[in-house]
Amino acid sequence: MAYTYARFAGVVRSIHIYLTMSAFLLMMFFAVTGVVLNHEDWIAGQTVTRDTTAVLPGALLAGPSGPDKLMIVETLRAEFGAIGAVSTFDVEDTSLHIELKGPGRHTEADIDRKSGKLTLKVERRGLMMRLDDLHRGKDTGVSWRWMLDLSAILLFLGSLSGILIWWALPRRRQWGVAALIGGTVIVAAVYWLVP
């Protein structure tokens, strides 16, 4: 019995070590960006906005099957510095409205279909605000959302294996229970007392 218990504790310890080492950079990232997320006012004023006006070629706007969406977006990127993934491409009778979004980046374009007049606004936020958007998964795309899910799984399993390791130490179990209860009471109190 003692051998089986020691072997189980050894396996859990190994799992805990490798899981937490795998997730170390992610834990550091979410710790730092969590503080940034909670105190966005500390890094306010890092947004740089650039407004541009131009005229797009009529061929892009009035093809036989309507506007050439792909070429319009690629033109906005190549010639006017538009950034982000396309989130909106509205085609109206007289105008086009296009938005591209990414973490810490936002581009908005309005195009008059008759004259080709383009009004473009490109907004770039500072590095910390971009990391803040990554923390929240805002405008990040599918691959980063998978990374967020993987992070959550690694953190959960790392925490669970840490609890199992703690439980395997009978002399420290009392202090661990006291710390667990104390932490739970503090979190619950803050939740209920803060409006």
Instruction: Label the structural class.
Output: alpha+beta
- CATH class call of the largest domain: Alpha Beta
Structure annotation, total helices: 7
The CATH architecture name of the largest domain reads 2-Layer Sandwich
Helix content: 55-70%
Q: How are strands sequenced across the largest beta sheet? A: 1-5-4-3-2
Proportion of beta-strand residues? 15-25%
Major β-sheet profile: 5 strands, antiparallel
Task: Give the averaged pLDDT, no decimals.
Answer: 83
Examine the coordinates and then state which fold CATH places here, giving the name of the CATH topology of the largest domain: Phosphorylase Kinase, domain 1
Q: How far is the first residue's CA from the last residue's CA?
A: 51 Å
Strand and helix order = HHEHHEEEEHHH
Cα-atom radius of gyration:
26 Å
- The global form is elongated
Low-confidence spans: pLDDT under 50, at least 5 residues? Answer: none
Number of strands: 5
Number of folding domains? 2
Task: Label this structure with key terms.
Phosphorylase Kinase, domain 1; 2 domains; 195 residues
List the helices and strands and how they pair.
Layout: H1 2-22, H2 24-38, E1 48-55, H3 58-61, H4 69-80, E2 85-91, E3 95-102, E4 105-112, E5 117-124, H5 127-136, H6 142-167, H7 173-193
Antiparallel strand pairs: 1-5, 2-3, 3-4, 4-5
Helix pairs in contact: 1-6, 2-5
Give structural notes:
The protein is of the alpha+beta class and 195 residues long. It folds into 2 domains: 45-128, 2-Layer Sandwich (Phosphorylase Kinase, domain 1); 141-195. It is 56% helix and 20% strand. The protein contains 7 helices and 5 strands. The protein has helices at 2-22, 24-38, 58-61, 69-80, 127-136, 142-167, 173-193, and strands at residues 48-55, 85-91, 95-102, 105-112, 117-124. It has a 5-stranded antiparallel beta sheet with strand order 1-5-4-3-2, covered by helices on one side. α1 packs antiparallel against α6 and α2 crosses α5 (127-136). The chain starts with a helix and ends with a helix.
